[in-house]
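Q: I'm teaching a short session on how sequence maps to structure, and I want students to see two examples side by side rather than one. Could you give me a first protein with its sequence written out and its structure tokens following it? Keep the formatting plain so it prints cleanly on a handout.
A: Of course. Example one:
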Amino acid sequence: MKSGFVALAGRPNVGKSSLVNALLERKVAIVSDKVQTTRNRIVACLHGEGWQMILLDIPGIHRPRHLLGEKLVRTATGTLSQVDLLWHVVDLSRLPGKGEEAVVRNFPAQTCVLLAGNKRDLVPDEEVGARMLSYASLHPYAGAFPISALTGMGLGELREVSLGFLPEGPAYYPEGTVTDQPESFVVAELIREKILHLTRDEIPHAVAVIVDEMEERENLTYIRAVINVERESQKGIIIGQGGRRLQEIGSLTRKELEGILDRRIYLDLRVKLKKDWRNREGFLRGMGLGGD
């Protein structure tokens, strides 16, 4: 049995969560075009005959501007030394910069790193080689793979080569396990994803979703969740005129949840003002972001 842990490291918004979802062929991590979408370390399990690969989707490494950002970066960098293999996921549609160099500086010297050039579908064929070389100069990678999480291009090769770097070991999770995240976490993340897609740029970063209650009732699951924002004006943006935006957030979340959980859902959403929550230690700990 070969088994091991693979961390996906990179800048925000390079497609790490999309890559995890594509490899599992199902959604385990929310995605959007907003930076800092991933706030927790997401565990996803790939299974095969005689092997198990545990993918760790971690927050993007960036320069933090508040306590939340500091915790996200510590979560990401603290994971890098705890795995058997690193995938450095980059966005091939843009050239490397200082942010990419900052990511590489966090790679432990003893850990093997593969370069995964994502969004290859956005790059003309004749430019792919040069783009890969521009990133390959950043670190002594053990291999480099142009891939596309959107189309699936190159994912099979990346997975197969990665298996060769995993040690012999036990099955860490039972066969069929996709993720170790509880249902309440999945619910909160899906609500936040809909907010990311439906609101302006300044809103998503100031939103924290907490599930207060999940209860099985006669013929459905009742869920009560609170959307926390930092300013009174943000409440109005999320609720929308006549409550229409909040209704749309709830409707989209409920439909997706019913498909994932395979049961009827009643979703009760509230919006609450929690000033400066991104700098509140106690609140962040309540979100599961207390560990440093």
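Q: Perfect. Now a second example for contrast.
A: Example two:
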Amino acid sequence: MLENFRLTGRTALVTGGTRGIGKAIAEGLADAGARVIVAARGDGADIQVDLSKPGEALRLADAAGPVDILVNNAGLTRRAPVLEYSEQDWDDVLQVQLKVVFQLSQAVARGMKDRGWGRIVNIASLLSFQGGITVPAYAAAKGAVAQLTKAFANELAPHGVCVNAIAPGYIRTELTGALQNDVTRNRQILERIPAGRWGEPRDLAGAAVFLASPAAAYVNGHIMVVDGGWMAR
């Protein structure tokens, strides 16, 4: 049974894979035997790409070549009260958090369909289910990512391509730094998490390996919450 979790011979592309959740997932996939291509803006990436710029998602797909596993992890958020939120911030967040997910998934899924096997793992969020505060664009994008995951799964499942998402809870990353440093919000968050702690990026690696593996062959269109029990509370 454990062989069903091995990824030997598979090629994975992980966006935003040089730090935080993306790095932990990339390391997990590599540990399971996959050849991992890391895409990010900064140093340490196999392919340097700025996904906030139009056209870069398709350039990345071409540069990566055929991949068996795609992890759409690259992220961006902008914080402001909803009545003050700017159109530019809205556009910037939707570009990275939604449009790129669609474009990359569409581009790589063509080859997956032709080969009869593939895995797409999108990184959703608790805000795929909840509205959040001062992050309207992020909440809108992550809600859409959950629905986009299901839409892709509906059409690609018959071709051996499984499309699913992971919805992380409150994870210690740079993206959540403002919340971690807010004494009141940090206390409120911890009080609701049954596990009693913030998640670490490595807490997402096992879920990603599972969804990327042959073991998940009958898992389609699922949004897997990894949150220490937040949603259960």
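Q: What should students look for in example two?
A: Point them to this: Residues 2-226 form a domain with the Rossmann fold fold (CATH 3.40.50.720). Also worth mentioning: The first helix runs from residue 20 to 31.
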